[in-house]
Amino acid sequence: MAELTWRGVYPAATTQFAEDLSIDHDATAGVQDALIRDGVDGLILLGTCGENNSLEPDEKRAVLARARENVAGRVPVVTGVSELTTSRAVAFARDAEALGVDGLMLLPAMVYVPTEEELYTHFKAVAAATSLPIMLYNNPPAYRVSISARVLEKLADIPNIVAVKESAPDPRRFTDLINIFGDRYVLMAGLDDVALEGMILGAHGWVSGLTSAFPQESVALVAALQRGDIAEARRIYRWFMPLLHLDAEHDLVQSIKLAEQIMGRGSERVRLPRLPLAGERRKQVIDMVEKAAATRPIGAKK
User: What pTM was computed for the model?
Assistant: First the structure.
């Protein structure tokens, strides 16, 4: 197992599908290998971009089993835990640990909008079922619930809840959480188009969607920030921003997978209820990706 430091660039890697929409495990492994070669610090599997909730339970476990063999400790592997009920989340967390992943990214129970007490109870139950380190995933626009400071305060005495992926669109939340909790929770920037702001304000790393299409630029952006070269980080970020906005849209999975395909890194195939982009939206995304590819900032400062 690789050391999980919650620092650097952790792409939310895609799950690749064959023409019949079965999982293409070889292509999925190829996506992971390419990201590792391009210098990412870890992999998030079975997140939103991994289409977690479009996979059957045995398929999810098969993805993790293959990743254990393929990644082979080169970087940490974190899996999303995204289930309809707490009991299913507990079972998946236990199985993920047995399959050798390094950490969990824990989401609220899907579909149901919980009270704060229900949210706390869900997270506490999953944490009690595993010894793995856990990163909570806060994304109020997507999941219609915010992991409030009150909930985090109640969870603070659970030692294996160690990090928060912060995908609220308001970057003030990073400062608020650090002011309240100090270094109790490691913060990770989780929404691509406020990632630089989050890292400047104290996030240790970036859980990214568009890294799957442009990993070298993502790694270079974070490296520039880590060495204090704000001007270079800002230069890359400004180039990246039109694409990073895609991460905040409802069709982010289709857009990111289409970008991967254009860049020769994967296929745009998605599972229902998602459909590949079509019409004007497809043209818009293709134009954005092709423009970005033609103006890549690495190696040519401007």
Answer: 0.95
